[in-house]
Design goal:
Rossmann fold; 8 helices; binds adenosine-5'-triphosphate; 10 strands; about 35% helix; alpha/beta; six-stranded mixed sheet; about 230 residues; four-stranded antiparallel sheet; binds magnesium ion
Length: about 230
C-alpha cells in the first residue's frame, strides 16, 4: 500500500537516509521503532509531504504522492508535538481543520467524551496544559475516520485513564481494518497494539517484519529484550 523507494535525505552535512527502501502493508498496525534521532519522525513527515526528500519517491496505492496530493484525505495524523494557532479556541481549531480538509469531523462527539475534552472546547489553545494539547492532537487525527492513521507517540503526556481509553479506541480502529502507523518507545504498548515492526537505526531499516518474526529472529520472548538484542547485534 505504502512504498518508500530509494529515499535520500540530508540535513546540512548530516546524511540521514541513503537509499531507504521498504513497504508498509495495508490493514496492518505497523510500529516504527528506533533510537532517538534514528529518523522515525522524518520518515513520517516525508510520507505526509512535510519534508521533501532529496531523491526518491513515496507511493501510496500505486500513486506517487508528489504528483497527486489527494492522498492526504485518507490520512489522520497525530504529530509528536501538536501545533495549532495558539490564539484559536479548540472549537475553532476543529472547524479550521474541517475547512482545510473539506471533510466533517464525524467522530467528534465520541472523541470529546472519550478524551474528556468537552469542557476545553471554548478555551484557547495557548491556555491548555501539555497533555490536553496532546489530546487535541489525537482528536484531530482520529475524528475524520480516515483509513490510514499515523500516530507519532500518541500516548505520551496523556493521563492514564485517557491513555487507556485512547489505546482502546486505536485497538477498535485496528479491528475495523484501518492501517495504523504507530511510533512509540514504550515496548509494552507496541506489543499490545502492533502487528508489524520497522526498526530504524541511523536512518537504515535494520529489521522489518512481524512481531513474531522479530522475537523468533532474536530468540527473545519479550519485545523489550528482542529490541535490545537487535541493537546490540
Ligand atoms: N529540520 C531539521 N533540520 C536539521 N536536522 C533535522 C531536522 N529534522 C530532523 N533532523 C535530524 O534528523 C535526525 C532524525 O530526526 P527525527 O526527528 O526523525 O528522529 P526520531 O527517530 O523521530 O527521534 P525521536 O525518537 O527522538 O523522536 C536527527 O539527527 C535530527 O536532528
Ligand atoms: Mg520522533
Amino acid at each position: 500500500m505504502i512504498r518508500f523507494e530509494r529515499i535520500y535525505k540530508s540535513f546540512g552535512r548530516r546524511k540521514l537516509f541513503e537509499d531507504l527502501n521498504f513497504e508498509l502493508k495495508e490493514k496492518k498496525t505497523i510500529a516504527i521503532l528506533g533510537p532517538n534521532g534514528s529518523g522515525k519522525t522524518t520518515l513520517i513527515k516525508i510520507l505526509l509531504g512535510l519534508v521533501i526528500p532529496d531523491k526518491g519517491k513515496v507511493v501510496i496505492n500505486n500513486r506517487d504522492i508528489y504528483r497527486d496530493a489527494r492522498y492526504k484525505k485518507i490520512i489522520g495524523y497525530m504529530p509528536q508535538i501538536p501545533e495549532f494557532p495558539e490564539n484559536l479556541k479548540v472549537r475553532e481549531i476543529i472547524s479550521m481543520i474541517e475547512d482545510i480538509r473539506d471533510q466533517k469531523a464525524i467522530r467528534l462527539k465520541e472523541l470529546l467524551d472519550l478524551l474528556n475534552l468537552g469542557k476545553e472546547l471554548e478555551k484557547k489553545f495557548s491556555s491548555l496544559s501539555g497533555g490536553t494539547r496532546q489530546k487535541v492532537g489525537a482528536l484531530v487525527a482520529l475524528a475524520f475516520d480516515t483509513p490510514l492513521l499515523i500516530l507519532d507517540e500518541p500516548l505520551v503526556g496523556i493521563d492514564p485513564i485517557s491513555a487507556y481509553r485512547l489505546k482502546g479506541f486505536i485497538l477498535e480502529e485496528k479491528k475495523r481494518d484501518k492501517t495504523v502507523i504507530y511510533i512509540s518507545h514504550i515496548m509494552n504498548e507496541v506489543e499490545e497494539i502492533a502487528d508489524e515492526v520497522v526498526f530504524l537505526t541511523d536512518g537504515k531499516v535494520i529489521f522489518e517484519g512481524s512481531l513474531v518474526d522479530l522475537k523468533k529472529k532474536t530468540g527473545k520472548v519479550r519485545l523489550e529484550e528482542a529490541v535490545i538484542c537487535l541493537l546490540s547485534s
